[in-house]
Amino acid sequence: MNATIADLKNRFEDALVTAFGDEVAGIDPLLVPTSNPKFGDYQSNVAMALAKKLGKAPRAIADELVQTLDLSDLCEPLEIAGPGFINITLKTEYLQAQLAVMQRSDRLGVETAESPQRVIVDFSSPNIAKEMHVGHLRSTIIGDAIARVLEFQGQDVLRLNHVGDWGTQFGMLITYLQEVCPAALTTADALDLGDLVTFYKKAKQRFDDDPAFQEAARQQVVTLQSGDQKSDRAWKLLCNQSRREFQTIYDLLDICLTERGESFYNPYLQGVVDDLEQAGLLVEDQGAKCVFLDGFTNREGERLPLIIQKSDGGYNYATTDLAAIRYRIHTDGANRLIYVTDVGQANHFAQVFQVARRAGWILDGVEVVHVPFGLVQGEDGKRLKTRSGETVRLRDLLDEAIARARADLETRLKEEDRHESQAFIEHTSHIVGISAVKYADLSQNRTSNYIFSFDKMLALQGNTAPYMLYAYVRIQGISRKGQIDFGNLGADIKILLHEETEFALARHLLQLDELIGQVSQELMPNRLCQYLFELSQKFNQFYDRCPVLQAEEPTRTSRLVLCDLTARTLKLGLSLLGIQVLERM
RNA sequence: GGGUACUUAGCUCAGUGGAUAGAGCAACCGCCUUCUAAGCGGUCGGUCACAGGUUCGAGUCCUGUAGUACCCGCCA
């Protein structure tokens, strides 16, 4: 209905000028969806806004505007209500025609972007030599959903995995392994990843406690950075091992990423320093090269520096992020850079973006945006941990979700005396478990902290993945029972809306394109979740009130189309969240 | 100390400057001879943290206060 709104908006703008003169040219008619279905489909709030400017009562303005407007081809007669709201109800024939258009479209009436943007979505970004843990969950899931929505719009999306494959951590790890397990530095898979993680923790401990070790580790970083062959080989071995482990999780989650780690930008770091130097932004302070920031101060009120090159000559992550911005805009040609990381990095990104802007790297028309999300907390409201106090491995978390979904399914099969194949049970519990985790995360406003609960996300009722999967399954049930091929309902189908629940469902279906536009702008996947949940509710209400297969023609076919549109919308919407549907469950 | 975000029903959370602030869960009451009841309907539940301000209109914008979380110089 994007086109409908655009059309209404134009007609309102014209009518405003006709009624009140050029004084109101270009005024936004403030068309929004109504807050309550009893007010119709859309409302204009412009009369209240113009009251002061025109020196007239809002209702009088509304009245004049309504006299001027002719929307009889689209709408029922306009109504003025309350202080001066103009309520717009679309004609039933119009809704029916729009549904027919949607039905015929393989994109459900959602247009592709007119001029596709080059968009880079930077998400997931685990660290080499560490296991992916629950902290990576949100970035991975949210980033993937955002990328999918933009891809569906036809944007040219590059999904980048900015893995932590460089820096001090490797100095620590290599130095430590030289001492305790040199074989790991020369032989592939001499250690399994679990051991590597243990070694990493021990190395970190040494680094924090032992100044001599710290120095050796720093020196090792310099050696690595200078291109030393032995170090380079060890580094590559470690990276490969981690990479394979990450991939099993991405496969499990059905998520696709292009790896371009921090090390990728090594050749460009010196260029960052040179550029900043040339721009006159670089200041040497206590041996480190810094850019002093606007609007960031320490406790004495002095401007804070962003360290670009450390006193030992090394670079840190700010430098890498700056090099990445420069590369992504100037070499990749990106128009939009999206960083999906936890909100704790908000400061860091604000600082880096500021420096990039001042250095002139962010070209006109390029949007650089941090998409932050809150912490994953346990049911106690604290950072999610295992019972023993460790961070939760992502692998374990996903396995548990699947196991719980499976236990749940098997209980139900027993209760209902159903018999299903092993393959069915495996597949269903996998989809239900993974979807539940994804949906629980995505359905929350990403900026707030989120309380992780298996019980809630796997619940069969409420705003959960299983509820929506079930709505889809119900529709497939109709198709099986009636031997209906939704893809072949007939060429010239009439959709007829009579019942309240049919109207409510139809109106909701027609909002899909507006919603996708919004999500792609605001990058808030929870809005898509909300839409799909409401769609499922409205479908279930329709399903409850309106028999489909037993209905007389032409109602029967019309209802079948509503079912088909609902199923396709659910399938598409869920796919944009990275969630697959099931035919039966 | 500075910065940022948050505070909405018993719990978990939505909420785009517009009309009587909404869901889900929990509790209680109904509805399966029917396309899967994993569903639907209903009841109960609110000082939108507090105090000011802007506005025709504020949960939403601004200021202040309180509480909570996160970030703050060579880790990422």
From TrEMBL:
GO terms for cellular component: cytoplasm. The keyword Mitochondrion does not apply. Residues 468-585 form the DALR anticodon binding domain. The keyword Transcription does not apply. InterPro entries: aa-tRNA-synth_I_CS, Arg-tRNA-ligase, Arg-tRNA-synth_N, Arg-tRNA-synth_N_sf, ArgRS_core, DALR_anticod-bd, Rossmann-like_a/b/a_fold, tRNAsynth_Ia_anticodon-bd. It is found in: Cytoplasm. GO terms for biological process: arginyl-tRNA aminoacylation. One of its GO terms (molecular function) is arginine-tRNA ligase activity. A motif ('HIGH' region) lies at residues 126-136. Keywords: Aminoacyl-tRNA synthetase, ATP-binding, Cytoplasm, Ligase, Nucleotide-binding, Protein biosynthesis. Its EC number is 6.1.1.19. It catalyses: tRNA(Arg) + L-arginine + ATP = L-arginyl-tRNA(Arg) + AMP + diphosphate. Its main location: cytoplasm. Residues 6-90 form the Arginyl tRNA synthetase N-terminal domain. It comes from the Bacteria. Belongs to the class-I aminoacyl-tRNA synthetase family. NCBIfam families: argS. Monomer. PANTHER family: ARGININE--TRNA LIGASE, CYTOPLASMIC, ARGINYL-TRNA SYNTHETASE. This is Arginine--tRNA ligase. It comes from Myxacorys almedinensis A.
